[in-house]
User: What shape does this take?
Amino acid sequence: MPNEVYGIINLDVSTKVGSESNDLGILEANYKLNDMRIVNVELKFEDLNGKLHNVKVHNWNIDWEAYFGEDE
Assistant: This one.
């Protein structure tokens, strides 16, 4: 088994929703992405040379905020 290095990455994320209202959009996002439905989270990073690096996420929590629409 290869060695692993652990660290913390802070990200701001977004997801597309079909709802037209902010409250329903947050509800939809919580339904699609919550710890009861998602079993594995991996991130893929592309460096300046085009090489891809995969990162496995061990602990995660999403707190959806009230931003909605194109203009944040």
